[in-house]
Amino acid sequence: MTLVPPVDLWDQSAQPLSTFFTNFTWSEGATISAALIAAIVVVIGYSRQQRAARREQRATMYAEALRAVEDYLEAPYLIWRRDGSAEARRQITDHISDVQSRINFYTGWLTIHAPTKVTGTYEALVRAARQDAGPQMTAAWEGKPTRKDRDVPVRQAYDRARAYPSRSLVLAAMKDDLSRR
Predict the structure, then answer these.
(1) What digits encode the pLDDT tens for the residues 145-166?
(2) Among 83, 117, 155, 174, which is most exposed with the fewest C-beta within 10 angstroms?
(3) Which domain, by its residues, includes 143?
């Protein structure tokens, strides 16, 4: 076994380990340091921009999910104001079907992408909206169609006793999630 003699790092006559640093000056070191700092700043800026974009996308999806439930809650009013024609019935039922499809889409999206608290409170809101608006839609279909303009204004708003408290819980959960990301 051959032993390598120790190297004296302060010995000026010793052969350099690498020729890269042989003619390395402070100005070159400053240039490399500045480039590294600039790269780090760019990466940090890009990361923050991407995080903000993801947060904005999530906020938009949350708003659209809430909008779908609000559209469902408005359905009894659409039914109540129908004119009684077959075309109006078809348009209203198509609209309600589309709204329910959107609610199902957002329920699935939230299950995949949102925290459990947001998903759970959204599902509770959907159940509450169906409990509030479902019987109201049935009663509206059983009522007479609107024939005169004076019958259009709603004399008494539909009750949202279940949906509105649930909506407050969902909004709080969504706001909490958006503030953490």
Answers:
(1) 887 777 677 767 888 999 999 9
(2) 155
(3) 58-147+158-180
